[in-house]
Amino acid sequence: MRRTSPWATGVLMAMTLAALLVPALASDGARDIGDVLASRLVPPFSRDGRGVWHLLGTDAFGRDLLVRVWTGARISLGVGVTGSALSGVLGIVLGAIAGWRGGLADRAIVALGDALLAIPRLVLLLVIASLWGPGLGVVITVLGLTGWMSVMRLVRADVQGVRGLAYVEGAHALGVPTWRVLRRHVLPNAMSGALVAITLGVGNAIVLESGLSFLGLGIQPPASSWGNMIAGGREWLLVAPWIALVPGVLLVITVVACTVVGEALGDDRAKDTPR
Amino acid sequence: MHRLLSRVLDALLLLWLVTTITFALIHLAPGDPATLLISPTASADEAARQRTALGLDAPLPMQYARWIGDVLRGELGVSLVRAEPVTRVIAEALPVSLFLGGVSLLASFVIGTLLGMLQALRVSRRADRAITAITTAIYAAPSFWLALAMVTLFTSGVVWLGLPASMRLPAFGMQDPAADPSAIGWVDRWRHAVLPLLVLSLPGAAGVSRFARRSLRDAANAPHVQAAYARGLTRGAVERAHVLRNALTPLVVLFGLTLPGVIAGSVFVEQVFAWPGLGRTMLSAIAARDYPVVLGLTLVYAGAVVTANALADVILLRLDPRRRTS
Questions:
Q1: Exposed (0-12), middle (13-18) or buried (19+): which is B33, by Cβ within 10 Å?
Q2: Which residue of B has its CA nearest to A203?
Q3: Distances (CA, A) of B184 to B94, B170, B177, B270, B311
Q4: A75, B57, B127, B174: which has the highest count of C-beta atoms within 10 A?
Q5: Residue numbers in A near B156 (CB within 8 A)
Q6: Which chain A residue shows the shortest CA-CA distance from B279?
Q7: Do B264 and A120 touch (CB under 8 A)?
Q8: What mean pLDDT do residues B28-49 have?
């Protein structure tokens, strides 16, 4: 983490802060519906019938979009981070097993990974989310179960690379238990690659969550996520396009920031690894 | 030859695994599929009869064997909602997706490669960074949101910006619903196709340009390129013979890997623009719990991915002599 992009890290931190603070400090909640006729479909940067000023405007029920967008950010960012972290942990564990044990376990894990990669991830998500029913838990689990393959491949290759090195054999010879050799001497070598994949995975997971929610298979209203907010704004597109467009702008900024941070981490790693 | 054979065997094994995973998913899901398929108002006798007719009374291994057997014979079962063979449902939707995917794939690669070449070899550092910022943002945007943004821009946006009314584009469907179906001209069809194709091509071209730029940069910095300049070759000659040739190999592989996206990539675009392709078929099958269609489509998608991967490997083998020996 020496040469990451400062502005991208800053954007992500600012977003997290806003997601935590804005809904907490707002005078009315993201779900409260007040005087609908006086306050609905107010364009950004204008006042509603009661004279209340809305930075990002209001939706069809007169709910302030600024508050809703940052309430939705809690779910979208949260699902992205936990979903990617879950797939990261799964990938590290499976990659360590495959790379360390080799043999049948290795071939089984690699084959399962290849098979899951052969089904487009969106299709896999759609099938699972529709069979198990929509909801927060299902979305996170499904993101975790369908995203571990790239991390697994990286960790597996790194573990295979150091498995036969002298210091690992040395640790063995000293009688260090296997799990400890793995944890202290092998896995730290694989972590930088996994971290890059997990960081890039956060943006990916956020986009997939928003896609599922857009199709009605993810986060269900009245809970707001960026995906279902975009879906909700779709029918007002010609009258009040800001309802659908504002959450998407935040989504794009978040994903770009995740990509930039991930790629900076990756460049960092490429410099560290001698070729 | 030996390599090719083992590659084909790998692909077949993979397809079998995918088939098994999809079958397992459907049967691991909470609830008996029969409860989804048999009308809740059916009498007990009727329900039992339908259960037998649908083959759902057999033990799971039997059902699995039957499903594998059907797949091997190229049969994907019968759609529960439309009472038609799944193969026909897929065959009807396939041309729509192939059109959307094919045209946009071609556009993505032509525009993306040219843009990448421009960025890596011609423009200033500042212009390069500006273009990269734009392509990164477009690449990051979810396609359904991009679709809504484009619809806004080319409907009400045209009015707000005071552009000529001819720039307003139809936002939904494949043709003008009010027009006489026999008299719909090509102009109307293409006007309906512009927005879906744009939304599919923009992120595609952005992704390809990012990839091409990087690959060209790496190729241009290689020592043998410096050596070629040192020998006094002109810039054009060096770029043609030493940079482009090396940089385009990974692009060919990327093309192979993107091919399956031709049919899977347009799920959201078909949904937003109401084009009856494979993606929309998948979504409506999922909504209606038409699981033979869901299974069949998943297999088609996976088959496309596996074939494209194998194809990319073979092409790479031909293009890059170093890989033949390893």
A1: middle
A2: B140
A3: 22, 14, 10, 21, 39
A4: A75
A5: 238, 241
A6: A123
A7: yes
A8: 70
CA atoms within 13 A on the CB side of A22: 19
- Interface test with chain B among A127, A141, A207, by most B beta carbons within 10 Å: A127
**Which amino acid, residue B89?**
V
> DSSP 3-state assignment of A53?
strand
pLDDT at A110 over 80: yes
Whether A203 and B140 lie within 8 Å, measured CB to CB? yes
Closest to A229 measured CA to CA, from A250, A257, A204, A259: A250
Dihedral pair phi/psi, residue A254, rounded to 5°: -60, -45
Q: How far apart are CA B174 and CA B190, in angstroms?
A: 9
- Which of B148, B158, B291, B307 should one mutate to test binding to chain A, selecting the residue with the greatest count of A CBs within 10 A? B148
Nearest to A259 by CA among B52, B85, B192, B135: B135
| Beta-carbon contacts below 8 Å between A and B | 117
Would you call A245 and B15 a contact, using CB atoms and an 8 Å cutoff? no
> What gap in Å lies between CA A144 and CA A154, rounded to an integer?
17
pLDDT at A107 over 70: yes
Query: CA A151 → CA A145, B18, B257, distances in Å?
Result: 12, 20, 19
- Are residues B311 and B259 in contact, defined by beta-carbon separation less than 8 angstroms? yes
Contact: A127, B268; criterion CB under 8 Å: no
Query: Closest partner residue to A244 among B148, B282, B301, by Cβ?
Result: B148
Q: What is the bridge-based pairing of β-strands A46-47 and A53-54?
A: antiparallel
Token output for B8: 């084909």
Amino acid of residue B170 = P
What ipTM did this prediction achieve? 0.83
pLDDT in tens, B167-205: 777 777 777 666 666 666 777 778 888 889 999 999 889
Distance in angstroms (rounded) separating the CA atoms of residues B284 and B287: 5
